[in-house]
Amino acid sequence: MHFNLLGLCRVLVLVGITCLLFLSTPAFAAERIVLKYGIFRESLSVEELSTFAQTGELSGSLKVNLALARQDPKVIRQYLTKPVKVNPVFLDKVLNSQIGNIILDQISQVFYTPSQRANRQALRAALVLGANQDGQVSLIEIIKNYPTNEVEVDGDRLQGAYRQLRRLQTSLQDLLGV
Questions:
Q1: Distance between CA atoms of 117 and 57, rounded to whole angstroms?
Q2: CB atoms within 10 A of CB 50
Q3: Which among 36, 67, 68, 140 would be 20 to 30 A from 133, CA to CA?
């Protein structure tokens, strides 16, 4: 009985937080991204990166930044947009476990706050919010839902972050028996 009550409380808290985030998304969503490739560092609007992810159209500054970093825009776009299907409620449960904290710590080496504080919590919120929207998460959704005005992204590690999301998806499927 105690376990079921605890589970119900977690679900209610998740629903409450999700409602709060949906009602106030503009105040909590990232507006700027600092994209880092080695020594190169470029500040872009999230809208600019989102447009690239959706259409493939590169802004002038993004085109220059990717060229200087010797990155293929098609590959970057693929990692940004390829979705990973997840169950939002189960994702929240896993991300609030010890294993989830390890996964969050690994992915937060790619997506992090400018202050380097509360990376795990910010990433957890971005993942759960993205999953609640459509039952899947992509790297561009993490960026768009990141709950700070600015998010820093290590572009050299985008592929690794995508692989971590795929591993998380596989782990969730294994746990659910899907």
A1: 33
A2: 18
A3: 36
